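Example record

The entry below shows one chain as it appears in the dataset: sequence first, then structure tokens.
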Amino acid sequence: MRNKVTVVGAGNVGATTAQRIFDKGYADVSLVDIVDGLPQGKALDMLESGPILKSDAKIIGSNTYEETADSDVVVVTSGLPRKPGMSRDDLLLTNMNIVSSVVKETSKFSPNSVHIIVTNPLDAMAQQALKISGFDAKKVIGMAGILDTARYRTFIAQELNVSVESVSAYVLGGHGDTMVPVIGSTNVAGTPISELIGPKRLEEIVQRARDGGAEIVNYLKTGSAYYAPSASITQMVEAIIFDKKEILPTTAYLNGQYGIDGVYVGVPVKLGAGGAEQIIELNLNAKELKDLHKSADSVRELIEVMERA
């Protein structure tokens, strides 16, 4: 019996995520959106690619949540996208209401699921999803660090003209301007990055990673990134469904780890069938730890705004 994954939001991120999962054939997919016909049409189009891709998975589109029942993983991508000049935080209250209404339904129909939150501002939306669902915090996580790390690794690989597979790195912290690339543990085939790239150039690469989403938004004008985000989501889904115990940078709820308590922040997490099964604590230097706390404080500010709304 195949697993079941629900993707809420049939826009570019959600639809591409649904497609990636359907293409591999290991899970049936429920694609939900409020726009009449949109998830139905996209799901049918994907379904008809099954014979070509040799996927016997089922995929169905819906405007309601009954079809999502008993999902193993729920991915929430619904919300307003960023436009040029907008920060992720500008979306806060509108997307808070959207995520609240979605999670109220998905948590009811799939009470044993793991929820992966993608809607921006991501860390605050994960906090809101936890509040609405009433789930154990291990079962509500956010996709950010994998994407931020992928961008960071991409730019390092380009700089050094090496395979991306040779670059090992983590990006922690909030999904935004306060993300924290861990320079001390970044290496290329075991060689510390500080021995390969000078500090000034490395800081330029770090800043480009921080601005990675905005750079794409500025190119597209009327949309935002979705290929790399959907690949990042799919990696998390597979870690959970196949109980891989894979350590990935994930937005998770901290209970004192790194000296941070009661807030969602991006950290390395062991992902398995239980969701965020373990928070991995890296040995950060003083600056990295300070930056991680600064990032957590930024998330707290957004939570306070939501609580006053």
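Notes for this example: The two ends are 44 Å apart (CA to CA). Residues 44 and 116 are 24 Å apart (CA to CA).
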